[in-house]
Amino acid sequence: MAFVDETYKRAESERIINHHFDLAAKKINLDHEMWELLKVPFREIKVQIPLRMDDGRLEIFVGYRIQHSQARGPMKGGMRYHPEVNLGEIRALAAVMTWKTAIAGIPFGGAKGGVSCNPKELSPAELERLTRAFMSRIGDNLGPNQDIPAPDVNTNPQVMAWMMDEYSRRHGYTPAIVTGKPVELGGSLGRVEATGRGVMFVTREALKDKGVPMDGATVVIQGMGNVGGNAASFLHDAGCKVAGISDSKGGLHNPKGLNPRKVEVYKEENGTLEGFPEADYISNKELLELPCDILIPAALEGVITGGNAAGVKAKFLIEAANIPTSPEADEVLLDKGVYIVPDILANAGGVIVSYFEWTQNLQASYWEEDAVNRKLEKTMLDAYGHLKAVAQTNSVPLRTAAYAIAIEKVARAIRLRGFLHA
Ligand code: NAD
């Protein structure tokens, strides 16, 4: 294990995913060599990014790309711009991508990247220069058959367009280098909404399994960005009552239900949720403890902990965010009988449609949106059905079953290819 630099502050996210990995690896009697191999990322890249600010100052940012595994295909994962981005967090998120692509049954490995910065304080021109400088430093280790970035927290189709353009300057026009691009540049129809749509599909299946009607079920969602906002709209359209929703500063509560599209328009016009009519303005802490049927964290990691899990009143926890729940919280929630659909399945819709986007780019042939959505639904439902069966047969929670299935798939690919290609 000498390869791993232990001097960085160990992220809570890393502790959480190591716990899940160890639990599942033990269940499947994973051999020691494979155990060690799968815990160490394939490659870790850390770069300095000098940025000339609009006012003439030079600021130095730090960017990361962690490539966890390429055993099952090119590495795949989002790019996050956030002040709290650090090596441990990105390392954990990269491993999550390896397990997610495996459980979804798509031919990719896992990676994640990001820049430690506050994009809300950067002008559009600064954001573009930062993105291009970042891409120019990591691009040699990316490629349509190597590692393919996508959007994550605080990045979007425009950021992907700059990344693609910067890469294409050196390598020729290469739309397959990133997914989540604007449709005009080879993006897939349905990609922007895919993660939220997938969250709706698994929520619907989970409710069906437990005999809870979708119509009138109350849902509370933390975060209203790409994932939370789209999930809220799809669930609202499917008959659920969105009783609570939040952004980073606070949330809204109305037990009779909110119209998520109206909330989004209000936020766009006012820059805050505070003051939205017909709802109480509450804290994110209060939001997680609201009475509801379904709780959907859709913001950042580690928000449901041993400290607040006892206050969660939901019967279903659908993990739209990555790594939102600590192992201590898991235990409390499972004891209370909460049905938890783990992140590596619940939010896989985004990477599934990213796979469709990549295949469309490679073939230079584009699909209609209906076809994208139908294939997304089938892929998610197949993965969920298999996961449920494995969990039932082995009497383990869905999360442990999900990690076990994923680890076995990746380990098998490594044994077939040889250990140099992990
Ligand atoms: P986003 O930047 O579009 O939105 C993030 C949302 O979280 C915003 O509404 C923001 O206000 C809110 N937020 C930030 N900090 C918060 C805090 N401390 N408390 C409450 N809310 C807070 O990001 P996104 O793409 O929607 O990603 C959200 C989560 O979903 C992340 O965990 C991400 O890794 C995961 N995810 C995203 C995708 C995708 O396709 N974008 C796919 C799979 C998983």
Explain the overall architecture.
The protein has 422 residues and is α/β, with parallel strands linked by helices. It has 14 helices and twelve strands. Strand 1 and strand 2 (58-69) form a beta hairpin. The longest helix is centred in the C-terminal third of the chain and has 26 residues, at 369-394. Strands 9-8-7-6-10-11-12 form a seven-stranded mixed β-sheet, with helices on both faces. Strands 1-2-4-3-5 form a five-stranded mixed β-sheet. Among the domains are: 41-175, Leucine Dehydrogenase, chain A, domain 1 (Rossmann fold), CATH 3.40.50.10860; 194-341, 3-Layer(aba) Sandwich (Rossmann fold), CATH 3.40.50. The protein binds nicotinamide-adenine-dinucleotide. Residues 151-154, 195, 222-228, 246-248, 284, 298-300, 320-322, 347, 350 line the site of nicotinamide-adenine-dinucleotide. Nicotinamide-adenine-dinucleotide (NAD) binds at residues 151-154, 195, 222-228, 246-248, 284, 298-300, 320-322, 347, 350.
Overall number of strands: 12
Strands in their spatial order, largest beta sheet: 9-8-7-6-10-11-12
Categorize the overall geometry. Answer: globular
- pLDDT < 50 runs, ≥5 residues: 1-8
Q: Main β-sheet: number of strands, strand sense, barrel status?
A: 7 strands, mixed
Determine the CATH topology of one domain: Rossmann fold
* CATH architecture field of one domain: 3-Layer(aba) Sandwich
The average pLDDT is 96
Bound small molecules, deduplicated = nicotinamide-adenine-dinucleotide
The radius of gyration over CA amounts to 20 Å
Beta-strand residue fraction: 15-25%
| Amount of helix | 40-55%
Q: Please identify which CATH superfamily of one domain we are dealing with.
A: NAD(P)-binding Rossmann-like Domain
User: How would you spell out the order of helices and strands?
Assistant: HHEEEHEHEHHEHEEHEHEEHEHHHH
Just give the CATH class of one domain: Alpha Beta
| Structure class | alpha/beta
What is the terminal-to-terminal distance? 15 Å
Count of DSSP helices?
14
